[in-house]
Amino acid sequence: MRDFIARQNSERLRQRLSKGIRVREPAAFTKLAHSLIDMALVTGIVARLYRALVLSRAHNTAYAIALAFGAVFLLLMASIHLSRHPLREWLWRAPAFAAAEAASEMLASLVLIGLSREPLGTGGAHFHDWPGMATGTVVLRLVTISLYGLVLAGVVKWVRYMLLRKEHVAWSEGTVRVGIPGESFVERRRQ
Known about the structure:
Layout: H1 2-18, H2 27-34, H3 36-57, H4 60-82, H5 90-114, E1 119-120, E2 123-124, H6 130-174, H7 185-190
Antiparallel strand pairs: 1-2
Helix pairs in contact: 3-4, 3-5, 4-6, 5-6
């Protein structure tokens, strides 16, 4: 019974929230955003190319701002992917997305090292630097995206709770009492 009520409430909440905004996204984007591997692959490649560009071009304040944009992009892509799935799946999807994103980022890093375009400190990275870079990137992505997913899940759960609580109060004040099946109208009026 609890699952039925939860499903009914979540469907009602989805319909209520979707009344104000109509967004039609292309089917290809929907398919991409739903796939963990595809989304992580795109995110990892773009993030690594952006990092290489920022580290080779930006200086001082521009560097910090550019890295902040990179972090926002990474978390936005994780949000887009996670938003396509139920909250109960986020527990494994956020770390899996982080691991797949870091793996694709490290593959892009290997290509950049082969082209002598991967920055590391003030110079370029070499193949013997790659294992340390890979370890640091995987750990950083796992921690960052997993914690972000946890916080995002908490916020989503809290917002849903507050909306449903507000909606429940509005329903319960002015609703007509339905009664028990088989109970006549006169019996309900006596109570």
